[in-house]
Write a structure and sequence with these properties.
Blueprint: E1 6-8, E2 15-17, E3 27-28, E4 35-37, H1 43-63, E5 67-71, E6 74-78, H2 80-89, H3 93-122, H4 130-140, H5 146-161, E7 166-168, H6 170-188, H7 191-206
Antiparallel strand pairs: 1-2, 3-4, 5-6, 5-7
């Protein structure tokens, strides 16, 4: 029995027969013209490289001092986790948990999954967990909110500048670099190509 797969256009909700264009081709919605898919040959390599860069930048962004406050000759500096601890100490446990998940844990898992998936595809290594990893990565796309945390840091710095001199540590620069990398990682993944390569690996592994 033959089965036909359909997808809804994200722009106009038109139900379309599922099609996978080849690398270099484009698939548009026939009603609204929305770009449905455009496979890129370098998407897997780029994702693999960005994942490695993101994993490298994650540790200095979380372990090195970000902002230092100089009061009476003493400099007090804090790392990314300091904000979570401060919220927890103030009794805002729920907010502290959300900040920890969205700013530390989820970005790390997102980068790790991107590295695992793109690494297996790049080296043509089938894995039974690839489908699950891809689904989890898709769900985490909406929960990686490093830019929100950066905005809160900027607001805090603006308020503190009127009280005491501030010094910016290497952790802040690493954190900004991490935001750029994760943004490129989220926007640059060609989901259609990734799913296509996963299916090819799984079929090849079953034969």
């Amino acid at each position: 029995m033959n089965s036909t797969h359909y997808d809804a256009c994200p722009e106009c909700d038109l139900l379309l027969r599922y099609a996978r264009p080849k690398i270099g081709e484009k698939a548009h919605c026939p009603r609204c013209g929305f770009l449905l898919s455009r496979p890129h040959n370098q998407s897997i390599k780029r994702t693999f490289a960005l994942s490695i860069a993101g994993l490298i930048m994650f540790f200095p962004a979380n372990l090195l001092p970000m902002v230092g406050l100089k009061v009476l000759g003493n400099v007090n500096s804090g790392i990314l986790m300091s904000g979570v601890i401060a919220l927890f100490n103030e009794g805002m446990v729920a907010v502290a948990v959300v900040v920890f998940l969205a700013s530390i844990l989820f970005p790390l898992v997102h980068i790790g999954l991107s590295l695992l998936i793109s690494g297996h595809l790049y080296f043509n290594r089938p894995n039974r967990y690839l489908i699950s990893w891809m689904r989890w990565r898709h769900h985490l796309d909406e929960w990686v909110m490093l830019e929100v945390y950066l905005l809160s840091i900027i607001v805090a710095c603006v308020k503190l500048m009127s009280l005491a001199p501030l010094s910016f540590g290497l952790g802040l620069y690493a954190f900004v670099a991490l935001i750029i990398i994760t943004t490129m990682l989220t926007a640059g993944v060609d989901n259609a190509l990734f799913w296509q390569r996963i299916d090819q690996l799984n079929k090849g592994n079953n034969h």
